[in-house]
Amino acid sequence: MEHMERFFKRMIRAAKLDADLYEEVEADKSAILQAAGVIILSSFAAGLGAITVAGFRGIITGTVAALVGWCVWAYIVYIVGTKVIPEPQTEADYGELLRTLGFASAPGIIRILGVIPGLLWPITLAATAWMIAAMVVAIRQALDYKSTFRAIGVCIIGWFIQVVFLILLFAIFGTPTQAV
Question: 3-state DSSP call for residue 119?
Answer without folding.
Answer: coil
